[in-house]
Amino acid sequence: MLKVPVSAAVWALSVLAVTSVLGACGGAPLAPAEDDPVRAAAAADDEALVVVQEASGRVRGALLRRARAEDAARAAPGPRACDRLTRAGEAVDHAWDALAGAHEAHARSATRWVDRQRRARDAVAVVAQQRRLDQAHHHAWRAWCAALPPRVDLPSPSPATVEPLCEGLARFGELLLVVGPPPDTPHAGLALARRLSRRLEDDWEYLFVLVEPALDPVRADAASVAIERGEPGRGAPAPFGPDRLPAWRDLRAVTVLDGAAGLRDGPSLRGLLRADANRLDLPGCSPQFGDAWGYSDVGGQLGGAVRLTPTGDGRWRPEGRDGGPAGWIGAGGNRGPFAPVERYLLGLAAPEEVGPITFLGGVEEGPDGTLAARSRCVVDGPALVERFGRRPPRTAPLRIGVAVVASALPAPATLERHRRAAAALFAPGPDDDPLHTNLFEATGGRGAAQVLPPRPRSGCRPPSPAPTVGP
Fold first, then answer.
1. 225 pairs with which residues across the strands?
2. Please, which residues bridge with residue 319 across strands?
3. Which one of 165, 216, 273, 441 is most buried, by most CB atoms within 10 A?
4. CA 462 – CA 131 distance, rounded (Å)
């Protein structure tokens, strides 16, 4: 197992040593009013010291941002996390450069006061030492990244052509093509699945539906559904029972997405959790906001803050990913890892890996962004098992179906884009896109999936004449 380097928070503490040196430099000396050169020198020294203090603050900020990048790398190792670490490390290095330059300028401005000049030059030496230590720390992270499994070179899929299946249905490689009206009303994904189940074999657990040319994301989310399959460890049952889809016994979720955003930009990873969403019944605390984590510190695909910090006056300050605002129903689409509790609900983590989770109930948001709550619940993985039963571990890859729905068959370039996006999202390793997180990265290497092509039932025969591809 790769050994993760120590957190950059340790190095943030080292800046305090530099700050203490700065504090020893004090303010400008008392200068006689009649001595204009001394007054001018004192003013220059004051200005130089302000620059030093500002540069020191930038170092602390850069170290903090890199610490967050390191936390993200621990949670979801992969190319995206390491690229972010590289950029954060470069920013820290530039900040150290600026601080060293500010100290040197301060030393030059303090020529009238030998003790100040000496302390300023001592500070230059301290900064140089701290920078060397910090560079060693960053090199340890670079070595850690270099030891990660290599990026998956996504192979160019073999050329695909449109193959008619049934009236209104065709296949393009692994994709199912559906010619017809879009599923753009509440729970329309279930109606689509019912129609498909009469013509296609029961192969998929998760069906992603891409509506071309576009669909409002709110309407797409409302059209998506989860289907109860009687598995333990998830709390309340899913909104739709198995009797609503009798011809298919395996499908657990239909996730409708905007075709313009596609699988990579759409909240596809969040869609995987639709069948394993927050149905943990904690009276007064959960669930909230439908199937999302709401006012909590889960910080996963289904929302929640990364952390909730008590402010000391009965309120809580939420913090989102990368220091941004918290999202109560989502966390930026395919740009971050699953939270530990989400990996557990997917069957990809043991309950012991789920640390304490705080849920706040009866929340009122203040104008300063803090939260006042009438109730608070704290649970961890073992407590979830005791209350809701144990989620069985997953032993096989997720079985995925991808359908494109349009009023007429889209152009081949559009279909190829969706096909490549599916290959990248469900690749068996880190993908080649530093701006997105795929399933492998989001699960810390535990998640595997197969995109399965549609298989027609015996009564599904090609129509005549065959559908034609759009321009």
1. 254
2. 307
3. 441
4. 68
Q: How far is CA 464 from the centre of its chain?
A: 46
Is residue 152 within 8 Å of residue 427, measured between CB atoms?
yes
E strands within 167-249? 169-172, 175-179, 206-211, 225-226
d(CA 405, CA 230) in angstroms, rounded, equals: 30
DSSP state of 212: S
Phi, psi of 237 (to 5 degrees): -70, 160
The tokens for 135 are 């560079």
| CA atoms of 68 and 7, how far apart (whole Å) | 9
SS3 109: helix
How far is the C-alpha of 167 from the C-alpha of 305, rounded, in Å? 47
Q: How far apart are CA 331 and CA 238, in angstroms?
A: 22
Confirm if 410 and 212 have CB atoms less than 8 A apart.
Answer: yes
* pLDDT tens, N- to C-terminus, the chain (471 residues): 344 454 444 444 444 444 444 444 444 444 444 456 666 666 766 777 788 888 888 888 888 888 888 877 777 777 777 888 888 888 888 888 888 888 888 777 766 566 666 777 777 777 887 777 777 777 888 887 877 766 555 555 667 899 999 989 999 999 999 999 999 999 999 999 999 999 999 999 999 999 999 999 889 999 999 999 988 888 888 889 999 999 999 999 999 999 998 998 878 998 888 888 888 888 878 887 778 888 999 988 888 899 999 998 889 999 887 777 788 877 666 878 899 999 999 999 999 999 999 999 999 998 888 999 999 999 999 999 999 999 999 999 999 999 999 999 899 999 999 999 999 999 998 876 767 789 999 999 999 999 999 999 988 888 665 555 555
In contact, 411 and 50? CB cutoff 8 Å: no
Task: Let me know if 454 is exposed, middle or buried by CB neighbors in 10 A (0-12, 13-18, 19+).
Answer: buried
Q: How many helices (H) and strands (E) does the chain have?
A: 12, 14
Cα–Cα separations (whole angstroms), residue 51 to 22, 98, 107: 11, 9, 12
216, with CB counted inside 10 A (0-12, 13-18, 19+), is exposed
Q: How far apart are the first and last CA of the chain?
A: 51
Cβ–Cβ < 8 Å for 426, 451: yes
- pTM above the 0.85 mark? no
The values of phi and psi at residue 449, to 5°, are -150, 155
